[in-house]
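Worked example 3. Consider a protein that binds iron/sulfur cluster.
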Amino acid sequence: MATSCYVHIPFCDDICTYCDFCKIYKKSGNVLKYLNALKQEIQKYYRGEALKTLYVGGGTPSSLSLSELKQLFQILDIFVKEEQIEYTVECNIESITREKLLLFQQYGVNRISIGIESVDEKSIQLLGRHHTKKQVEDVIHMVKEVGFTNINVDLMYAFPWQTKSSFLNDLSFFCSLKVPHISTYSLILEEHTVLYQKKLEPIAEELDLWMYQKIEETLKELGYHHYEFSNFAMPGYESNHNLVYWNNEKYYGFGLGASGYIDSIRYQNTRSILKYVSGIPRLEEHQLSKKEEMENECILGLRKMEGISKERFLKKFHIPIEEVFPIQKLKEKQFLEEKNGYLYIPEKYLYISNEILLEFID
Ligand SMILES: C[S@@+](CC[C@H](N)C(=O)[O-])C[C@H]1O[C@@H](n2cnc3c(N)ncnc32)[C@H](O)[C@@H]1O
Ligand code: SF4
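Given these inputs, the predicted complex is written out as structure tokens:
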């Protein structure tokens, strides 16, 4: 039983220099074939549960034309949706139009997530993006004017060429947009990307940490709730869909390169568009052991500021968490704290949470 669903639309108008996501250049003929294959996959695997969250991500879903989007939403109408569903579509600045936003609304979309990343001219150019600051302001204004209130924007930082002052300019611009959710991403120089091939040095760890702390301090002052390692929301605007991942709950994943988690099985779809459109979506399935399920519960849950619920762990796995993981040892080192039955990594150690998690599952 899963009440959340991710649908991947891999098409992009252009490919950014840092991106290792599952994406392909958009060609109209491909889109139609892709949508057909997507429909088949959904019809084959979806069992009819009413969805609480539906997330259409990419790639760039908004790069589809109006008529392609109509076909996509007709396919997504296969899903039964709860009345209070959180229904998100990922967009980028260049491809959002008023008509597309109105169409989204017509099909019940109520959350828009926009990849902005930066408004610094040098960064925009080196990241291979194409918007201007003015375009960003206009698009955010239009999204609000059309009636969307639940809006996320993505902010990237820690570019090899980024100075403290250009970072602070980006941060204050993002704050000025007055949107209720901001996802932040420290740049990862992924293999197989243009930036990686340029052999750029990542920025110093201290500078990365300084930027992370500045984001946290600034957004908190403005009233954002730091609810997950790199996500900030005004109260009530936390992403329900992403919380499903961090709470280690089940979800469907449909589309090229998508992954899902159903019945103790984590599956991964192929990244080959040829295989996908010929009706072979699954690449691999992995049946999780109880130990792996327990590890995932903690690794994912500790990304949240509130941490993991001891009671929930006991209910789910029928064993106290202390009997499985070295909780006491980590508490003594102050890497873990406990409040109201929740175990969490204190904010000052979040930045080294990967090291703490390794110790946790060792
Ligand atoms: C699928 S993209 C967002 C939607 C849309 N494709 C766009 O780019 O506007 C998801 C987000 O992941 C982040 N991201 C992608 N590649 C990254 C990388 N190498 N390092 C850090 N963040 C990255 C970016 O912030 C991006 O907005
Ligand atoms: S960052 Fe977004 S727009 Fe850029 S290539 Fe990746 S998925 Fe496409």
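Take a moment to read the result before moving on. The mean pLDDT is 96. The two ends are 31 Å apart (CA to CA).
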